[in-house]
Amino acid sequence: MSVRKYLTGSEFTVKEHVDPDSQTATRFMTEDQDRTVVFEDLNGGKAVGNLFSTRAKIAAAMGIGQGDIVRRMIHAIDNPVDTETVQDPEFRHSELPLDLTALPICKYFPEDGGRYVSSGVIVAEYGGKKNVSFHRMMIMGPDSIAVRLVPRHLFTMYNAAKEAGEELKVSICIGARPEVLLAAATSAAYDMDEMRIASSLVMESTGSPLKVGQCDNGLLVPSETDYVFEGRITFETTDEGPFVDITGTYDYVRQQPIIRIERIWACKDPVMQLLLPGGNEHYLFMGLPREPVIFKTVQQQVPRVHAVRLTEGGCCWLHGVVSITQNKTGDSVNAIMAAFTGHASLKHVIVVDADIDIFDDQQVEWAVATRFQADRLVVVKGAAGSSLDPSAHGTTCKMGIDATIPLTEDREPYMKAQLDP
Q1: pLDDT digits (tens, 9 = 90+) for 71-84
Q2: From 112, 245, 331, 353, active-site residue
Q3: SS3 of 118, please?
Q4: Which domains does the chain have, with CATH numbers?
């Protein structure tokens, strides 16, 4: 019952029947993305949208402050923890009829290729390597899914299995706790098991490691998961897409592999987690796991790094803000260059002083307005950027804004007036 334990009773509830192909669910979720929306009858089942659509919600679910998420993730990546296997995992409460089309899974936008699982993470293991990762998955029929495989770890596993003439066993988890979702979106080394990163995050929050249970296919998945689909990535391919990606624009149709589902498990009273494509929750689960990498990369150049944020206005992918304290002239420029190194898709970055709250857009803009001049702009032409940026054509032009107070100048004229304590 992973999803239910994060519901407080204060959510906006849609009681009427919602047709999964009508985009009605999307309309309710986009009206106010800070608001959690519960659907009592989406295609006959219960679903929730915008569950973790703000940093505050994610932090609250982990029992920490939102400013602590990045440091907690850095610790988990550097200090992974083994999971704990339980004999009676929650997701095995019941086995459902093998019919994906009967589940509360919706089509989000008019031109989508079909109904999509957007919050699901895939667990796989091959050749001694384990992987947990996010993938969009288009429902093709009662037992088939078209999966988008980007050329990373699961793609590598799939091709290794394919070369050996084997289909790749997978388990798809929907409704996992936020620590699992953050770990699944982390760019870890190929040898790293993201489930151990999730376990470290859970250990820090609860004092106990992540509990996992075994599927019939032998894979271990989080016990507290609302739905688990067991299946295999086959050699078959099909058209996948269109689908609205993180920038809110349609991604194009590709030939992608088909997953054949063999078994559907559900916990007691399951809730289907919906993740709005191109919405704030999509931004956060893609962007948040990149922030620790940027933090560590900048810290190698500027020791006193206070916070890193990929901004919602930049899709938590293309724009960022970094807070530092300079030791010497030029640290701010080095911080800009290091941020671009830490996240290759970053297109614009603003570097500010420690007195600026980088989670407050107005404060960041105020720093740019009062501490930046255009002749301090850092421009990098012809760089590799994000394939998700519709304005990029092969390469991108990156921009760094140094909105710090120059060390050579008196700080007093730059400081906001403060009342006496």
Answers
A1: 999 999 999 999 99
A2: 245
A3: coil
A4: 4-277 (2.30.110.10), 287-414 (3.40.1670.10)
